[in-house]
UniProtKB/TrEMBL annotation:
InterPro entries: Ade_phspho_trans, PRTase-like, PRTase_dom, UPRTase/APRTase. Homodimer. The gene is apt. Its EC number is 2.4.2.7. One of its GO terms (molecular function) is AMP binding. It comes from the Archaea. The keyword Chaperone does not apply. It is found in: Cytoplasm. Belongs to the purine/pyrimidine phosphoribosyltransferase family. This is Adenine phosphoribosyltransferase. It catalyses: AMP + diphosphate = 5-phospho-alpha-D-ribose 1-diphosphate + adenine. HAMAP family: Aden_phosphoribosyltr. GO terms for biological process: adenine salvage; AMP salvage; purine ribonucleoside salvage. Pathway: Purine metabolism; AMP biosynthesis via salvage pathway; AMP from adenine: step 1/1.
Length: 170
């Protein structure tokens, strides 16, 4: 199965000049979603991860599916103001502006190995910010799992030094 065929391209979203890659069709297709999870299980060793972190919001289904597959927990890295309790936050640049996201301070135990999941690696700003949040609360970033990588934007440079994998490259 060709995963790229299960990803829609939406021009001028969320603003003019951006070509948005939408994984919604992939998530609706059980065989495509299963293939994504199977591909990551070939890459991620169970001993290399204690918990999966999903970046809001398209990282949530990937992190949740992997957490279930590995019998591990799942935590959320969310947009500012969406998590209850005490949080740490960071503001970072994205390809079309800036954003702020948060993690609950009690989301992980010190030293836990965290695999960060998102649908897309573009400039790497979101991924790097998520790594900073995980490390700020005492976690160790075990790696990143992305369904899509936009190679022309060179996001891998932003997460240099971290292990990462992407399944579909544009």
């Amino acid at each position: 199965m060709n995963l790229k065929s299960r990803i829609d391209e939406i021009p001028d979203f969320p603003k003019k000049g951006i070509l948005f890659r939408d994984i919604s069709p992939l998530l609706r297709d059980p065989s495509a979603l299963s293939l994504v999870i199977d591909e990551f299980t070939k890459i991620i060793h169970p001993n290399d991860v204690d918990v999966f972190a999903g970046i809001e919001s398209r990282g949530f289904p990937l992190a949740c599916a992997l957490a279930l597959k590995y019998n591990k927990g799942m935590i959320m890295i969310r947009k500012q103001g969406k998590l209850p309790g005490v949080t740490h936050k960071t503001t970072y640049n994205i390809e079309y502006g800036s954003a702020t996201m948060e993690i609950q301070t009690n989301a992980i135990k010190k030293g836990q190995k965290v695999y960060i999941c998102d649908d897309l690696l573009a400039t790497g700003g979101t991924a790097k910010a998520a790594a900073n949040l995980v490390e700020k609360i005492g976690g160790n970033v075990a790696g990143f799992a992305f369904i899509i990588e936009l190679t022309d934007l060179k996001g891998s440079k932003s997460i240099k030094g971290y292990k990462y994998n992407s399944l579909v490259k544009y």
